[in-house]
Amino acid sequence: MEIRIDRDAFAKALGVVQGVVERKHTMPVLANALLSAQDDSLEIVVTDLEICMRNRIPSISTETAGTVTVNARKLYEVVKELPDPTVELRAMDNDWVEIRSGRSLFHIAGLPAQDFPTIPSMEEAVYRTVPEKHLRRLLSLVEYAISTDETRYHLNGVYVESRTTAGSDEVRFVATDGHRLSLATASTTDLGGLKLDEGVILPRKAVAELRKLLDGDQSVEIALGKNHASLRKRGLSMLFQYVDGEFPEYERVIPKGEMQRATVKRAQFLRALQRISLVSADRTHGAKLELHPAELRLSANHPDIGEAVETLEIEYAGDDLSIGFNATYLLDVFRVLEADEIELEIKDGLSQGAIREKNNPDFLAIVMPMRI
Amino acid sequence: MPPRSILHVDMDAFFASVEVREKPSLRGLPVLVAGAGKRGVVSAASYEARVFGCRSAQPTAVALRLCPRAVVISPRHGIYEEVSEQVFAIFERFTPLVEPLSIDEAFLDVTGSERLFGPPRAVAEAIRAAVSAETRLTCSVGISAVKFIAKIASGRNKPDGLTEVPPGGEHVFLDPLPIGELWGVGPKAKEALESRGIATIGDLRRRDARDLMRWFGESGLHFHQLAHAIDERAVEPVHERKSISHEDTYADDIAGRDVIERHLLDQATRVADRLTRKGLRGRKVHLKIRDGRFVTESRQTTLPRATAQAREIYRAACGLLDSVVLDGRGFRLTGVGVSDFVEPAEEEAQLDLFGAGGMKPTKEETHHQRGDALQGVLTAVRERFGAKGLYPADTDPHAPADTLGGKALAKKKADP
Asked: B159: closest CA among B63, B26, B45?
């Protein structure tokens, strides 16, 4: 293999795939990127055996076609720093790679291309065209609630399912860690007709990578098949497996019945909460909310540091009510929301509270309280 | 500061005495509680064995050369810990100010206990009597107004001794002692002091502090103060246990991931048992591994949820092992530990959506909850029937040494 390639395009393409590469894997070749040069394009492939990402760089000049594998991170670091806008890449004997640019010369150790795992191809599935921005928004609305507890692997992802509510088709995105839950809904039409026969769980890492890829203003193609999901975006494609597990019956925790409803200003509440959490207990981050007519009192204390109180004017006409929450859980929700006014729905100090954007039925967060 | 009354209580040949108590036929014999095999180390030597020059921390092979007919017993930490808890509970009846130094010794500040129990000597006698009556073990006590003198004093009349250094009598007591007895004077400092003609604590006391400063810097001044019986350190009862760990040193280096993992499972099981017995759960899991060339690597990870389950500790330890390049290396030591303990109240404060919200727990959830319950049962069984009562199939304690790839030798706790 011998090619000539634009440095910036190469560096950018390598940068995009870095997140997938596991640096500490039992299979050393997985730290590498597989580079395949064809007539006029270079394809970069990386995988951790659960996610596979391919990135194609068009319009390169190919002297000889061929494939090599080389450490993905090292290659990226080197290419980024090269002095000349053009890079020459040549496969050497013993699977090494030579990189030349201006007066720089690098020889980087690689591994045989045949050691690189074979990537399964996407099964028969219908690709739907979805606005990038919309999909990114849906994922970020729920991503914060994904469990990081590896023993609850069935919660280590975003559950996606199709529903028909009041005659209209919708797609739901749900994540929970057992203490809080986030649910975002989109109409099937807005997602290019995306429909699933049964719910699937997109793994946490894939969700993070997807969100990073969805950085533009155009549209992407997405397919949610039976065993795999795939995303295509111009020269880039990502294929990944679902979490193999049973997602909990989340609807049963959506609060029903009489709730006390308060409306707060998002920015004001967020800043007050950030301030009082400076003195909340290290691990539990407990914050106390006391609701009084037209007033919310937020407080926190730490046995060794001290205490903090904030008083906010809010819309509230219900009974006096006091409830404790992990401040981090509330901050996580308030940080992803965009509306100016947020509604808090609370029943009592021991039942789950709900958080919604005012006039937006497509989002719901549920947070379980703390005993304070 | 008003004069204090400080006791240093030290159990006599603790592990060995416990073994003798458990097995009276050993009484009067030289007993070594020690790991067997070529890398075994003596944890405790009975007084009968000490006559021959056997000491703790000595390689077992050396101790056996000194006293070939000594009875060697493998350490049983579970039982020592149990007795230790009993002994500390006795201390706490006399004063809340108990500072543990190790499993079998502690400082006690009994300044405030006089009205209840009489002068320090009476308190010491009462403690000795209680320890003897309730544990059938003896201890030695040193009494002084100064911490480090109390510690030296307890060692003066061992075993079963009581040494009081009354206020004002410090110099009479300290002056004739060899310089190596002073706290913080190790072999190097001892040599350096002796080369300057300082052989006893008295010699040191009579030197000018400035000379000592010049020779040894800050620690010289510190030595000088100690020689003048100045030691303002208070008895600090805080010493909460910060971690629980279990390490093994192997007679023959172990190699291969399977073999290492089997040992980690055994160690995780022991740590889980100790955590469970103490009602503790921790969020951090540590792995320590030392290769044949004494290169030690340590790794740690934070779990999403505090645990006392062997299965979860083991899994985390194996995850940490992933980041150790094994490369066919042989390892002489492995260890697993858990730290960052979580108060039960702290954990329970956060309510669960799954329980309270009526969400049916999934298979996986039920599995985890059962794991907690199961760990309790397993620990209780091993508590009652010993480590061989119930054990993971991969760590058969009956298996001959070679199938385990090197039998565990010196077992020591490595709690900071």
From this structure: B45
Q: How far is B320 from chain A (nearest CA, A)?
A: 11
Position B407 confidence tier, pLDDT thresholds 50, 70, 90 = very low
Residues A150, A244, single domain; the answer is yes
Which of A210, A236, A251 is the endpoint of a domain?
A: A251
Best B359, B363, B369 residue to mutate vs chain A (most A CBs within 10 Å): B359
Q: Is the dihedral of CA B194, B196, B202, B208 positive or negative?
A: negative
> In chain B, which residues have their Cβ closer than 8 Å to the Cβ of A176?
353
> Quick one: A330 and A231 in the same domain?
no
Annotated catalytic residues of B are: 105
Contacts with A372 from chain B: Cβ below 8 Å: 349
Residues of B in contact with A181 (CB under 8 A): 353
The whole-number pLDDT of residue B405 equals 35
Taking an 8 Å cut-off on Cβ atoms, the answer to whether A370 and B346 are in contact is no
Domain that holds residue A151: 128-251
Report the alpha-carbon distance of residue A200 to residue A244 in Å, rounded: 9
Please tell me whether residues A336 and A222 are part of one structural domain. Answer: no
**Domain architecture of chain B: domains with CATH:** 1-118+126-163 (3.30.70.270), 171-227 (1.10.150.20), 243-414 (3.30.1490.100)
Residues A88 and A164 in one domain: no
Which regions in chain A score pLDDT beneath 50? none
Could B365 and A24 be called an inter-chain contact, meaning their C-beta atoms sit closer than 8 Å?
Answer: no
In this predicted structure, what is the pLDDT of residue B403?
A: 33
Cross-chain residue pair A248–B354, CB shorter than 8 Å: yes
- When the pLDDT of each residue in chain A is averaged and rounded to a whole number, the result is 93
Chain B interface disruption, residue of A146, A176, A283, A328, most B CBs within 10 A: A283
Residue A28 sits at the chain B interface (C-beta within 8 Å): no
On the question of pLDDT at B393 being above 80, the answer is no
Same-domain status, A277 and A346: yes
Across the interface, of B304, B346, B351, the residue whose CB is closest to A350 is B351
pTM of model > 0.80? no
Q: How many domains, chain A? A: 3
**pLDDT (0 to 100) of residue B404:** 35
Residues A217 and A299 in one domain: no
Does residue A121 lie in a domain region? no
List, for residues B245-289, the tens digit of each pLDDT value: 888 888 889 999 999 999 999 999 999 988 888 888 898 999 999
Cα separations (Å) of A177 from A154, A240, A250, B352? 10, 22, 11, 9
DSSP state of A120: P
